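re: that chain from earlier
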Amino acid sequence: MTTWKHTERAIAKRLNGRRLGATGGATPDVITDRLAVEVKHRKELPGWLKDALAQAVHNAGERLPQVVLHEAGKRHADDLILLRMQDLERLLSKQF
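^ sequence. v structure.
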């Protein structure tokens, strides 16, 4: 099994979802009752991104740590939100 397939299966399991796999159509990698997940597997993530998330976690206390990624000149409605899987799981289970 390829690494990205393994990652998709692991994410589906953690989120109590289902991996759709390569269907040939425009479908998410993983679906749950509430989520449509596109999984991206990389050898390494950018250091600045990991540093930003570490800063958010350090400063969050008991709150939900997240990083907002905003591209200059773009609408804030299209900003990206980065959070850890464990925090998403807690959010979905309403532990925040």
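The longest helix spans residues 47-60.
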